[in-house]
User: Fold MerR family transcriptional regulator from Prauserella muralis.
Amino acid sequence: MRIGELARRTGVSERSLRYYEQQRLLAADRTAGGHRDYPEHAVDRVIRIQELFAAGLHSRTIARLLPCMRDADGGPSEVATPQLVTDLVAERERIDRMITELTRSREVLDEVIEAARTPGD
Amino acid sequence: MRIGELARRTGVSERSLRYYEQQRLLAADRTAGGHRDYPEHAVDRVIRIQELFAAGLHSRTIARLLPCMRDADGGPSEVATPQLVTDLVAERERIDRMITELTRSREVLDEVIEAARTPGD
DNA sequence: GTAGAACCTGACATTGATGTCAAGTTCAAG
DNA sequence: CTTGAACTTGACATCAATGTCAGGTTCTAC
Assistant:
């Protein structure tokens, strides 16, 4: 599929998809004229990439991580190097802290929203 | 307490604490000479602010939200305006999506880390 | 009163993914 | 062929919190 359709189906801008390619996160074939041509499973991959960005990972880390993911991309997954494992464990701890903070913030929002819904309270 | 101690106790840089004040997130008394003097409950407030930043809220939104939080700051909490409630509901939805993405990313990291721990697999 | 730590303001830099625009090329349908 | 939509590359802008540095002032302990 072409970049426009991929963008539409993933909700990620064409700009970002080109950036992902530049960062070696997402490969694309090319038509004879140079247009990008994505395989079907690129949709899943883009969604994963977005999730990893949302989790605060940098593109360089994602680039190292992706080859180790079991995915629908067909290719056999590599095994993470010890250095990568160390880095990923640290990222996981950071994500856990982040989830805690998000959950706490959500509770704060809940309280404020609820307090405004019950004027008599 | 002074800014150095507050920074130490919250893990937030002095630079950021000054920025919070500038953004009207955190008030501070001043000594005769102009040094900031924080009350004890500033520690809690700074932690809340950090959590809200981690949740992706902007300082302007946090500034509107803080007066509505029931907190140890003694002051009576205001009631959120309808506009603020609308905004906070949207933020809450965003936070929920974010938690979902973080949780999914955590699972991906788990898989890769675990796969590297069991070489025979 | 003095030394040194701690603090002040102000300015400028950084980060990294993404937005946006320009000028040109390719694709697909009639 | 032609036309307009979709695509290409490249460059520059943006955002918002935080880092960093300079030059000066205040505080505290002796």
